[in-house]
Design brief:
about 170 residues; alpha+beta; Alpha-Beta Plaits; five-stranded antiparallel sheet; 8 helices; about 15% strand
Length: about 170
Amino acid sequence: MTREEKSIVIESLVEKLGKYSAFYLTDASTLNAEKTAALRRKCFEMDINMVVVKNTLLAKALEKVNKADADLLKVLEGSTAVMFTNTGKSPAVLIKEFRKNSDKPILKAAYVEECVYVGDNQLDQLVNIKSREELIGDIIMLLQSPAKNVISALQGAAGQKIAGLVKSLEERN
């Protein structure tokens, strides 16, 4: 690979690191052609961009975008496939589902919500991460709950009692 080709690959990786908010570093080296094609198909269906890269080129791209965490660089050994996504937990869900029938891909590390997760043992934690939209939905639901309780109380028997008290107070004046 010439210097020009390497610089093109690095720039492509830099572009993807800027475009996607999360990425997973995995090892899918021992998958046969059929299982690799199935993995790529699942990635396409879940809007995950999977790219097999050279570790040195990925390390240079990470340095260019200031994401060259020591823990991420430490796992760049052997075969590395990068899964780029804008939904932080979707690659973890995909890996967990895919490993029901296979022992790979193995999670080396993940960069999600500006946090680094290292090791395959972090997979369950990554599956349970809530997306930004899910967190906003939870907050809205929590904020609506007290208002719904007050409205239902006013519409029920307690509301009739309050209306009766207000009416009797008005009649006194």
